[in-house]
Amino acid sequence: MKKILTNNILKNYLILTISLFGIEMIFKAVENTSVLDWSSLRIFMGISIISLFLSILLSFCKKWIANIFTFLIVIIATIYAIAQAGFENYLGVYISINTSSQLGAVKEYVRDYIASFNGIFYIITIPLVLLIVYKILEKFILKDKKLNIYTKKEDNIARIVALVFLVLFSGFYYASLSLKFMQNEIQLVKTKTLFKNPSNPNIAVNQFGVEMFGILDIKTALFPVNETSNEVKFVSKNNGNTEITDYTRTIDDTSWQNLNNNEANIDYKTLNNYFMSRNITDKNEYTGMFEGKNLIVIMMESVNNILLDENIYPNFAKLYKNGWYWENAYSPRNSCSTGNNEMTGMISLYSIYRTCTANVYMNNKYEESIFGLFNNKGYTTTSYHDYTEKYYYRSTIHKNMGSSKYYGVSDLGISYNNEYKEWPSDVSLMDKSSEIFTQNSPFMAWITTVSPHQPYYSDSELSKIYYDSFANTGYPSNVKRYMSKLKVLDDSLGELLKILEEKGILDDTVIVLYADHYPYGLTNSDISKVLGDGINKYNEVDRTPFVIYNSKMTPKTYSEYTSYVNVLPTVANLFNLDYDPRLYMGTDLLSSSYQNRVVFADGSWQTPVGFYYASTGRMSYFNDARYTNDEIVNINTDVDNMIKYSNLAIKTNYFEHLFNEKKKYEVNTED
Predict the structure, then answer these.
(1) How far apart are CA 55 and CA 59, in angstroms?
(2) Where does the pLDDT of residue 107 fall: very low under 50, low under 70, confident under 90, or very high at 90 and above?
(3) What are phi and psi of 598, to 5 degrees?
(4) What CATH number does domain 289-585 carry, 3.40.140.10, 3.40.720.10, 3.40.50.2300, 3.40.50.720?
(5) Tens of pLDDT along 531-557?
(6) By the 8 A CB rule, do 583 and 575 touch?
């Protein structure tokens, strides 16, 4: 028996399996996902397959080479698991090859990244430490050298046995992807679908383990999966109005239907069918409320509800206390949160979770974007940001979104210093941009700020301006630096209001404000010192302000759950723009058909009833109200469809194709 245990194949298999599976179980515990469920069995089988395969290969190597490779594999797996835990903690997503561009965010702000690191992540090194201890003691445990001597025949038999088990484990593993008792009825994406393409890293990591996810991620990068729309099922959601009222929004689909009848591309055809099947949101009492007025949309960098403190940030308080404020607004993080969430605000589609979508698909065109709608209404549209194109190619992206002119930091003549230490002042941004967009009327301006951006663990000009104002708060230095930068943003809002009032156009201007993401350069522990421990549950850390303001409106606070995906359709209705509500994954927040729900990047969602965790496929309820499994499945189907069809439309540049081709059929119809 002792000699059997010293067989190189079996020994390497046991070392790799125990070490790698140990890493996986500790990772699950660290990430607060269930250890005792069927996914753990699947992960064990996956680890066994990897370990058997590597052990067979290593059996052809000299013992010292096999030992080195075994160590390297465990070391790499350990580092990878820790890095994934840290990355998810820092940016809210797991890193993949498709999101590798976000490594720059970690590299550039390495001090903030390290400071945000949770010490518990290091317990993932336990299997590696135990392996080192075992190797040190091994020579004492196996003193008899004869035990390590095997004939060629014995080695071949061991390889054949290992190969048989490899085939068996592979068969069991494949079966586990579809065996009913190993599936979660209310899981957002089917396990087998995720295995083909781990498009949702959070669910994939939970179902397959962090190490198998890494392998699947590499596989899909090398051999991309064609995500045909055949995999996506949808149910028609046409409102089926039987009575035409003054609020009924009617749209003639003749040209679209003619186009679809002649469409040869399967993806375009299925996208046509999906979008035409969606609900046409009716008009309502707020339709056209701001028709003819100017619009300024401000996406605020790294903002959360700390900004609601009216004693510290009086200018924002003026806006949210005298405007419409949504108290349950969120800015879900995803890959490239700033660029992707800006993009979603402009086109009301969900960005591709594992991809820096705004950059990768920067050449896509969207006539139905917020710029396109206002262009069609006769507005002058412009966009502004007080930084370079180091991270996002806005001069191309915004142009293809329909902005008549994009102005970056150099175009505006705003000075900035060292890229790591200093960001420009948003006060300068409001001064310089307002000189341009107020020249024409009516105007629509999109402004993306930057002053509150990290780092918060080192001093900078902006972080020192108001730092002493927080001397008696007891907050950590990094929090005080952030709050100082946030006050610069608040100053910029005051500057904008002053300029609009001086020019006599404040009453004729609507200001919409939302955040790109919470300040992820701060840890939850840091933020909780200001906002309380409530931010540690569910996705409360992603709760951010959302405001629509006009000096003549009646203030109101709304309780509906929302995110930036609803900005465009809400604005389009308020300004009575000519738009098709079906083309947007968001909905007019003021419509009677609005689904009171916020969707997060990984497919999790929250309603007044509870929070659905996509990664684990579990529901957490807030009160006595409950969903049936069928109701959860229906919501998941809707959420999954919106994400998948958004992604497919972006990948295929669908909307440029749609609008170009529809024009041809409009001409033919008239003829």
Answers:
(1) 6
(2) low
(3) -120, 135
(4) 3.40.720.10
(5) 998 888 888 999 999 999 999 999 999
(6) no
